[in-house]
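Exercise (ungraded).
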Amino acid sequence: GQNIDQPTEMTATEGAIVQINCTYQTSGFNGLFWYQQHAGEAPTFLSYNVLDGLEEKGRFSSFLSRSKGYSYLLLKELQMKDSASYLCAVRDSNYQLIWGAGTKLIIKP
Amino acid sequence: IAGITQAPTSQILAAGRRMTLRCTQDMRHNAMYWYRQDLGLGLRLIHYSNTAGTTGKGEVPDGYSVSRANTDDFPLTLASAVPSQTSVYFCATAIGGEPSGANVLTFGAGSRLTVL
């Protein structure tokens, strides 16, 4: 079966750096996505990786290793507004999105 | 303001009743999707439409139906609601009907449905 694994919950301190990991086992691979979802709101797109390596976008970076079935989202200079759930999703060989359950990130002052 | 409008925002429904969740977009995106989100689970695709006039089944289609008469509207109907359909329902759109490049999803604000 297809599977996306993420930690359920993480806690970090304002101003610090946090890395949220995502491992996947899917039928083929056609890209990996990270979305942010604040409580009670809709998910919003953060990043897309299709080739190995690091994609940087301001305070957020996303890394992909296809051979290891692994990605991480790196958040720097954490702000209170970064408290949210972070969803990892992989597009499989049928171009269907498989979603992880999400990682709830709690930022403490 | 361009985007996706979902209605109702929240609804409590008796089991056995028929319910239609509405989704309207004004971005002229080809593809539209219905997902459900349950605690501890990833988003699960119910039905999708790659372009007006076509629909397809997702991962969890049973008990749900959709139609896509035009580009903008993609209603989701529960013919006879059951308690296991209690969930938050998100409508989403993407520019391309067929995946190409990132084909990023834009989500509506969601409809919270409780079936008693």
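Further reading is listed at the end of the chapter. For now, observe: The first strand of chain A starts at residue 3 and ends at 5. The interface with chain B takes residues 4, 30-31, 33, 35, 41-45, 48, 87, 89, 91, 95-102 of chain A (CB under 8 Å).
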